[in-house]
């Protein structure tokens, strides 16, 4: 799968691209991720990508022309296997279901906004969709793009050692219990600073462990994310 990151800060992604699961997947050829400098599609001496908003107001906006030219150059043939995404606080909320949906494409181009945002014609006429990673405002789309790439990448077959593990994680519709978070997990030592691991996990009785995990996952979801349980009741 191929990801294009369109940004005024391509160097922002260096650490993200060179570590962990994403780096391994790139090295093995499963992922091709390229950060493109938006200023390459400007023609003035200062490589200007921004301008003042019509009608007045705070700050500057990314101009449409460099974004259109860059997108047309990077993805000259857009089709049903490609997707252009504008990162935006105003976008639809990105979640695990959106990650699964995006993992079906061959090529994604993620447009990272900056300043006070992006000329609206980019959302209206260039992007296939507008996505937000949460109800808060970041200074730029780069962190949001990294979140989406990381989340989508680990769903691509072969990227994780054991692909089944993604099936049973929090927010997965196909998980042990849809709508319930993953269960609490513990590792060695069995006792740390006087806090023991739940006895049942040490006993080796798989049926008891399964039942304990199910109950613990429900309890944790009810405590931390009661909205998930409420949503599950409504859809049933
Ligand atoms: N004026 C905009 C608003 O109030 O909606 C915020 C602009 S923000 C300072 C600059 C850029 O950061 C945006 O164009 C977008 O690309 C990115 N951004 C900010 N918050 C985001 C979020 N929650 N999800 C995705 N991208 C975000």
Please provide a brief summary of the model:
The protein is an alpha/beta fold and 236 residues long. Helix content is 33%, strand content 17%. It folds into two domains: 152 residues, SPOUT methyltransferase, trefoil knot domain (Alpha/beta knot, 3-Layer(aba) Sandwich); 70 residues, Orthogonal Bundle (Trp Operon Repressor, Chain A).
Structural features, described:
This protein has 236 residues and is of the alpha/beta class. The protein folds into 2 domains: 2-153, 3-Layer(aba) Sandwich (Alpha/beta knot), CATH 3.40.1280.10; 163-232, Trp Operon Repressor, Chain A. The protein is 33% helix and 17% strand. The chain has 8 helices and 9 strands. The chain has helices spanning 14-17, 20-27, 64-74, 96-102, 120-126, 142-153, 206-224, 226-235, and strands at residues 2-7, 32-37, 50-51, 61-62, 82-93, 107-111, 129-132, 191-192, 195-196. The strands form 3 sheets. Strands 2-1-6-5-7 form a 5-stranded parallel β-sheet, sandwiched between helices. Strands 3-4 form a two-stranded antiparallel sheet. It has a two-stranded antiparallel sheet with strand order 8-9. Strand 8 and strand 9 form a beta hairpin. Helix 3 runs parallel beside helix 5 (120-126) and helix 7 crosses helix 8 (226-235). It is elongated. The two termini are 35 Å apart. The mean pLDDT is 95. Residues 87-90, 112-114, 116-118, 132-134, 136-141, 144 line the site of S-adenosylmethionine.
